[in-house]
Amino acid sequence: xxxxxxxxxxxxxxxxxxxxxxxxxxxxxxxxxxxxxxxxxxxxxxxxxxxxxxxxxxxxxxxxxxxxxxxxxxxxxxxxxxxxxxxxxxxxxxxxxxxxxxxxxxxxxxxxxxxxxxxxxxxxxxxxxxxxxxxxxxxxxxxxxxxxxxxxxxxxxxxxxxxxxxxxxxxxxxxxxxxxxxxxxxxxxxxxxxxxxxxxxxxxxxxxxxxxxxx
Length: 215
Known about the structure:
Blueprint: H1 20-59, H2 62-70, H3 77-93, H4 98-121, H5 126-145, H6 163-171, H7 175-194, H8 196-210
Helix pairs in contact: 1-3, 1-5, 1-7, 3-4, 4-5
């Protein structure tokens, strides 16, 4: 007679948490694709505004003169702003120069947030300060989204690559990256100059609508 007994095999229940690593990996991959796109969209918007602002200020177009009078600034202030806007645009778009990038972002934020405060102090409506407020927010977003190779070493938190890949990427800033960055700047300056006549007409009408000048 057999003494063998049939012992049922107990299979532990599968918990929902078993699927978490896969879902987390998918989420990380999705985030790793969205983050660079969001960075470049916000960065190009910030750089284009700095480029256009430098052209307007250095040429001191009518709109700039009207704003300076309205906010009670001397005309020479436009040249100071224009020169710094050129430097900030270059520092933000080109590879490397991570410490200077921090200063450029800070300067851009102070420029646009300061414009918001000045317009509010002058009693201007939302149509006057909403634009600088938007660009101040975009500057913060671009700064927060910047990749590891655009961060200072002590502030890098790149979760999408391991340490070795991170250091390898930081070491690469070849001629192609410089050519692309400088090419973008050339295109943005070309667009700013080519659209200047239309911009001046639009801004002239805008100044009339705001009541800052008369026909």
